[in-house]
């Protein structure tokens, strides 16, 4: 809270106290000076509380901004991992012609779609796991049934 605003609030509280005393309405047995002192203390306490609340709000905003930046960075990393896994699968002779969906979240890769055989399914897991940044691979590929 700016000093100017504090003084304005103190003056307003003092003026209100003086007006009440001047009207002859006694709030209690305290003197006008004591009432002004009490009003000043109340205003000062409120100002301190507002300052603390503003600091807490600023800290919360900073934490939220940091969390958002981390989330954006993680999303960019996940997109890069997905691209690299797709490239590795496309470079494989058996897997390149297949539609395999790759989803990445926090470095955890999920593969969905079909594989021509069990060996190709296992190779897809190996290729995905070899990509830098991959934490785990959840291979949900199903083996195509022969006709």
Structure description:
- The chain is α+β, with helices and mostly antiparallel strands and about 150 residues long.
- About 65% of the residues lie in helices and about 15% in strands.
- It has 3 helices and 3 strands.
- The chain has helices at about 5-20, 30-90, 120-130, and strands at about 100-105, 110-115, 135-145.
- A 3-stranded mixed β-sheet has the order 1-2-3.
- Helix 1 (about 5-20) runs antiparallel to helix 2.
Structural class based on helices, strands and sheet pairing: alpha+beta
* Total beta strand runs: 3
In what range is the share of β-strand residues?
5-15%
What is the distance, rounded to the nearest whole angstrom, between the alpha carbons of the first and last residues? 78 Å
| SS field, number of helical segments | 3
| Unreliable sequence segments | none
Report the helical percentage.
55-70%
Output the strand order for the largest sheet: 1-2-3
Topology:
Blueprint: H1 3-22, H2 32-91, E1 100-105, E2 108-115, H3 118-129, E3 136-143
Parallel strand pairs: 2-3
Antiparallel strand pairs: 1-2
Helix pairs in contact: 1-2, 2-3
Which descriptors apply to this entry?
147 residues, alpha+beta, 3-stranded mixed sheet, 63% helix, 15% strand
Quick description:
With 147 residues, the chain is an alpha+beta fold.
């Amino acid at each position: 809270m700016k000093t100017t605003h504090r003084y304005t609030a103190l003056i307003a509280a003092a003026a209100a106290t003086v007006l009440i005393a001047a009207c002859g309405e006694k709030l209690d047995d305290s003197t006008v000076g004591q009432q002004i002192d009490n009003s000043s203390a109340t205003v000062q306490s409120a100002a301190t509380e507002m300052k603390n609340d503003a600091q807490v709000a600023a800290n919360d905003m900073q934490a939220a901004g940091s969390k958002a930046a981390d989330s954006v960075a993680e999303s960019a990393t996940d997109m890069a991992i997905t691209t690299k896994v797709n490239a590795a699968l496309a470079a494989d002779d058996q897997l390149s012609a297949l539609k395999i969906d790759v989803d990445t979240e926090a470095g955890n890769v999920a593969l969905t779609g079909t594989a021509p055989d069990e060996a190709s399914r296992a190779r897809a897991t190996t290729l995905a796991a070899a990509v830098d940044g991959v934490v785990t691979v959840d291979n949900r590929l199903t083996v195509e049934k022969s006709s």
